[in-house]
Design a protein that fits this description.
85 residues; single chain; mainly alpha; two-stranded antiparallel ribbon
Length: 85
């Protein structure tokens, strides 16, 4: 997803005005999707920004984040922070 697509998603689907660096979000989503196989960047963004589960029991179990979900969040956060400025 491009930064512009992420901005549209935040505004249209989530109903918020974006306050984050869209390009850093895009980079983090792409790199996270590449690391965690069979995951698309759009799904990564939906998980990070709207807490939508990815796959059956991949990121959530009984409403809580699984080990993979927590690892994905930590990796995404690290990449985002590296590219934020």
């Amino acid at each position: 997803m491009t930064g512009k697509e992420i901005e549209k998603y935040i505004m249209r689907d989530l109903g918020f005005i974006p306050r984050h660096n869209m390009e850093a979000l895009s980079i983090a989503a792409e790199r996270t999707a590449n690391l965690f196989e069979d995951v698309e960047p759009k799904r990564v963004i939906e998980f990070m920004l709207d807490d939508r589960p990815i796959g059956a029991c991949y990121t959530h179990s009984y409403g809580f984040h699984t080990r993979e979900g927590r690892a994905m969040r930590e990796f995404f956060k690290k990449i985002y922070e590296e590219n934020e400025s």
